[in-house]
Design goal:
With about 450 residues, this protein is of the alpha/beta class. The chain starts with 11 loop residues before the first helix and ends in a 6-residue tail after the last strand.
């Protein structure tokens, strides 16, 4: 997303909505990144298929074959569906005055994927027509009403304030395969399939575990968790604390800071004084003020771990401006876009650059592409007699979904009992994000898939 949140000028509601994104698989920023220092050659596993010198076949993306192609579709008649077209709604918020460009990736991926799929022949001959629905943060219900009137399904999008559209979507029987959900209401609603399951009692804590292995002082001297007063972030951080302590890692401090912090120095001084050697921060969008405060007080932590929304070109720009900084990492559940030698990554980047000016290669991009690929595979498999019910059934039956090699395998079943144990770490440098093989210690392609990367916690922490 091409925006940087300023420290003034945002309404309280907008600030809370944007801060909530730190809880999800979100990334913000727009860059045409290239291979930058990935220090491991991808293996031939599903999550990191080896590069091929030959061009992909028509309708092929990564390891997925024939998910789009020609045909003579005739059957089925439904809202948004004709014999020649399928109208797909894409929810997003880029027109928000409070945060221009937020979730722009969803619209960009829709343009990119639909252009590629239609060129391959569409869905059994039917061409995808994209219906972009910009809720601008606060108009989710209104846009959902419009989608209910004309769209066949919702695919590859999402809203920061998505709870406002749940009742309307379910009421009109509109199915979706979203890129992400934020609220509990949206995450647990019916008539949807998610490319990756989420379970309230299971916490993916692999990046912290791997950093503690790479920096052993973390276990004895202790780490800190940074969060914000937004209820959802506070709850998530309490779960993270439980998960970290289950691993035998000492937690010195759980800092619940205001959503907008004017001065990080007191918080960083607290961590320096109590001997903290690592910080896992889930709140915010810009590393600069926190890292500058760390430098100003002369604190030298072993590592800083930031959440998904910091996987951006803006963070690289900040690193260049800062010059020196502690070891900064982000944990990802996707192949980094810096590894263009991985076929599916190479194709996604090529498709986006062909369709969109200055696209962003972020976590949102990956999640949206995964949703679109899952939908297209299911829709093509349903044949001429295309229905939402068929698509949702087929999309929800994948037992090892990898989005063509973009992610480690996971079940898409709404009844899934286990979230993915797989993660990898990228490290920030002044030249870009770099896949860190040493810290990741991969045991499945590019990923570390140790069972301890997921911990069971109390789903309702006090």
């Amino acid at each position: 997303m091409s925006f940087r949140i300023r420290r003034t000028g945002l309404s309280a509601t907008a600030v809370l909505a944007i801060a909530a994104l730190g809880l999800t698989v979100i990334g913000c920023g727009r860059s045409a990144s290239s291979d930058q220092g990935g220090n491991a050659a991808p293996s031939s596993s599903a999550a990191s298929a080896s590069a091929s010198s030959s061009a992909p076949a028509v309708g092929e993306i990564g390891s997925l074959k024939n998910i789009c192609g020609p045909g003579t579709a005739k059957g089925a008649s439904a809202r948004g569906l004709t014999a020649t077209t399928i109208k797909i709604g894409v929810m997003s918020d880029p027109g928000a005055a409070a945060a221009p460009g937020i979730e722009q990736e969803f619209f960009d991926v829709a343009d990119s994927f639909s252009k590629w799929c239609n060129a391959a022949g569409g869905i059994n001959g039917r061409k995808i027509v994209v219906d972009k629905r910009d809720a601008k943060l606060f108009n989710v219900a209104q846009e959902m009403i419009g989608a209910c009137q004309s769209d066949f399904m919702l695919v590859g999008g999402g809203n920061a304030l998505d709870d406002a559209g749940v009742k309307t979507r379910l009421g009109c029987g509109l199915g979706q395969i979203a890129a992400y959900t934020v609220s509990t209401a949206a995450a647990t609603a019916g008539l949807q399939v998610k490319p990756s399951p989420s379970i309230a009692s299971q916490i993916p804590i692999g990046p912290v575990r791997l950093l503690a292995e790479a920096y052993p002082d973390s276990k004895t001297k202790g780490i800190a968790l940074g969060s914000a007063t937004l209820a959802s972030l506070t709850e998530a951080s309490k779960k993270n604390k439980q998960a970290v302590e289950e691993l035998g890692i000492k937690v010195n401090t759980l800092q619940i800071k205001p959503v907008l912090v004017d001065n990080f120095r007191p918080y960083m001084e607290q961590l320096k004084s109590n001997g903290t050697v690592g910080l896992y921060e889930v709140s915010g969008q810009d590393i600069t003020p926190e890292v500058q405060a760390i430098k100003n007080i002369g604190w030298n932590p072993d590592w800083l771990l930031y959440s998904y929304q910091f996987y951006t070109a803006q963070s690289v720009q900040a690193a260049k401006a800062l010059g020196t900084f502690p070891n900064i990492y982000i944990g990802l559940n996707q192949v980094p876009f810096e590894l263009s030698s991985v076929p599916v990554v190479k194709q996604i980047k090529a498709q986006l650059l062909d369709a969109v000016k200055n696209p962003g290669f972020t976590q949102l991009t990956a999640e949206s592409y995964s949703a679109w690929m899952l939908w297209a595979k299911a829709a093509t498999a349903c044949g001429d007699n295309l229905t939402q019910a068929c698509i949702l059934a087929k999309a929800g039956s994948e037992t090892a979904w990898t989005a063509g090699g973009l992610t480690p395998p996971t079940s898409t079943s709404p009844d899934a009992k286990q979230i993915s144990n797989c993660t990898l770490l990228v490290r920030l440098t002044t030249n870009g994000w770099v896949y860190d093989k040493k810290v990741t210690n991969p045991n499945s392609g590019l990923f570390n898939c140790d069972p301890d990367n997921t911990q069971v916690v109390n789903p309702n922490p006090g």
